[in-house]
Specification:
Layout (H helix, E strand, L loop, with lengths): L12 E5 L2 E5 L6 E6 L6 E5 L2 E5 L3 E6 L5 E6 L6 E5 L2 E6 L2 E6 L4 E10 L2 E8 L4 E7 L10 E3 L2 E3 L6
Antiparallel strand pairs: 1-2, 2-3, 4-5, 5-6, 6-7, 8-9, 9-10, 10-11, 11-12, 12-13, 14-15
Length: 160
């Protein structure tokens, strides 16, 4: 008899607890794997046969079947929004955005830079080569960006 709460019984149930991510067999409750993390997982994102773990300032991509980490990287800003794209993740925060493939390769990044009272966005490709710079107006003090990329939207909750 099929399990009413699962469409694919081969995939584990995945959830976070303090400092860890657990994958449990949906039918038996048996622990398939445990992955320890530093800090709190803010978001789980399904990426094909992997799960992306979004931490405050890091991304990890873990194989759903085995718990093997295929990518672990620090991000140079706090992450407030993240979305799944074709074969990877795009994450954004007050100081920039980054696109990362399942293998951990950076596809592109955009960072906010300040020189005195002038702010600009700087886009770099995956090799760190600058693609463009655009001056922006406004304060960076309480800026928490939403993200629209390839038709997908991520908007963080904003505390008033």
């Amino acid at each position: 008899m099929p399990e009413p709460y699962r469409t694919d019984a081969t995939l584990p149930l995945v959830w976070t607890v303090k400092d860890a991510v657990l994958a449990v067999d949906a039918a038996t409750g048996e622990l398939r794997w445990r992955h320890d993390v530093r800090g709190v997982v803010r978001k789980l994102l399904p990426v094909g046969d992997h799960v992306a773990l979004v931490l405050r300032d890091a991304l990890e991509i873990v194989d759903l079947a085995t718990g093997e980490v295929s990518c672990a990287m620090d991000v140079p800003f706090p992450i407030t929004a993240a979305i799944v794209t074709l074969g990877g993740i795009v994450a954004a925060g007050p100081e920039g955005a980054i696109s990362v493939g399942l293998d951990g390769d950076v596809r592109w990044s955009v960072t906010q830079r300040c020189r005195g009272s002038k702010h600009s966005l700087v886009m770099e490709d995956g090799f760190g080569e600058e693609g463009w710079t655009e001056a922006v107006a406004g304060s960076m003090d309480r800026h928490v960006p939403g993200l629209l990329h390839e038709g997908h939207v991520a908007q963080p909750d904003i505390a008033e």
